[in-house]
Amino acid sequence: KIKGVFDATPLTRSLRQEVEGFDIMICLMELIDNAVQATIERPEPCISIRINFDKVDDHGHRTGEPAELVIEDNGKGMSQRQLANYFRVSFTTSRIPAIDRDSQPGVLPLDAFINSHLNRFGRGSASVVYFGDVVEIESFQAPRDPKQPSRAYMVKCDYEALLKSNSWDLEMYEKDQEVVEDDLNGWTIIRISKLLPDKERVLRDLASLEHLAKRLEQVYHWFIYGFPEWLWDKMPAELTRNSRRPRGGLTIEIVMSSGADVLFQACLSPESVSKGPGGSGGGSDDFGHNSDLQAVLREWERLASANQAMELCVTCMRYLPPGHPSPGGTGLPLKLDGKGPSKASAGKPLPGPGRGRGGTAGGSGGPGGRGRGHDIGGMQPRPPGRAPKSGGCVEVVELLEDDTDIDTRQKDCVCDFVLIWLFFPYRQCLRTKPLGDSGEELFVFPFWSGKDMIKSKLHGQFPEIYKTAVALARMDQETQNHAHKLDDPGRLVALLLVSPDALAHQHKSDFEGKAYELFCKSGPSAGPSYRPSSDEQPRLMTYVWPKDIEESAADGSGEAI
Questions:
Q1: Where is the composition biased (Gly residues) (predicted)?
Q2: Collapsed DSSP state (helix, strand, coil) of residue 342
Q3: Is 374 exposed, middle or buried (0-12, 13-18, 19+ CB in 10 A)?
Q4: What kind and span of H or E run contains 549?
Q5: Residue 487 contacts residue 436 (beta carbons within 8 Å)
Q6: pLDDT per residue over 202-247, tens digit each?
Q7: Phi, psi angle pair for 275, to nearest 5°
Q8: Is 194 helix (H, G, I), strand (E, B) or coil?
Q9: CA dist 554 to 231, 547, 548, 550, Å?
Q10: What is the Cα–Cα distance from 216 to 452, expressed in whole angstroms?
């Protein structure tokens, strides 16, 4: 053995190298994701993004301090230990939300698909040094025991100095902090200075900031505005029964100033969008109307309010990994946590794509079930532990600092997809479907856990199930005269909701894994040629709406289902 010090400590430059080729939006979202989760218990969650150039003192004189990016939230804050480990890549206290698919057969309720537990992989440290060389993170978490000292902590990383010394020495500070109000019993402030020149240019550019704000409005749409009531009322009863409509409430403020002058300001909040036809709220100049998603939802709401016959088409699918029994099969599949068996409920696969609204009767067709919704607003802090906050389908838990599942997460697990198809008819030979902000055709808005996956290829194409639907329409004598309408991408938009337990890229801007690949490439088999896959293969099952079963039985074609 050779004497000496040999270790595998990563070089300090590796931290920035992990993200240096990324879009600025991805690294900003990483920091906002953490803030969204931290503010889950706040009745008025707020995230502030401030860009300060040419700072001045109280007398209006320039201080000469470097430009600064500040991200602040009114969340629960971080403990001293969490803050001390912030710059360790992959350090996380996150856990994938547990989804109860065993409580009832059928589809998952809609509120299971919008969950603000977005923290996953512990990549915040790489995202902060993406912007600049000096990072200060200050956080306060009020002690649960009032007899304990109340202190805020700050960790400082001079990344420029670390690069020169190739060391990981950080500075840690503490100060007494008085809790003035209950809603100020926690917060976090990230200050990034000595901004890198290319990042500073983007943050100084007004057009870039406006584009950035529009994208943020779309990415966190469900957390800001909630699920629209008019859209909720049109969804199949199987998806909304025993489910609580997500109401949003998040505010994201963006301000860029130079000296004492505010050069750019945007407030993304529930008040920044009107309530639609006949409603009250913000006017047409409100900032929130500018995203592609807002344009699509507002136009379809307008069309549906003028034509009560317009309905949604909703397709629900579930991915089953190899070894998981098919609906109606035998055996006890492992639960998602891998700790024991769970029962699989009976059901049948659908040989064609999903059709419209289902009936109100309970239906089979999925290997798991649906539970009650959960309330994520206005909760009081509770002692650490694993007790669920409410008896809902998605379990919201307080975690011990070491209580994370990052080392035991399955790479291929059950997950669910809901496709909400919005059809836009032509009026007087003119299309009603909006184009994208840059004039491009809009296809799918893909959401994972309620967050828009901006790098997903589905933004520019429909999944394979769409082609199957067009083929089926051309084969059916009753629909073939209208198949050309379905085949026209200028008439259709899809909202894709994917459950929080689906696999996502480590920087949460795209999906990955076999489930996503199968969803994009595979469409349900059509006609009598359908043959069920064996349990040794990955499968994508489509839910059979009770209404479809009733109609098939009535016309004597029930054997096809």
A1: 353-370
A2: coil
A3: buried
A4: helix 546-554
A5: no
A6: 999 999 999 999 999 999 999 999 999 999 999 999 999 888 999 9
A7: -90, 15
A8: strand
A9: 30, 11, 10, 6
A10: 9
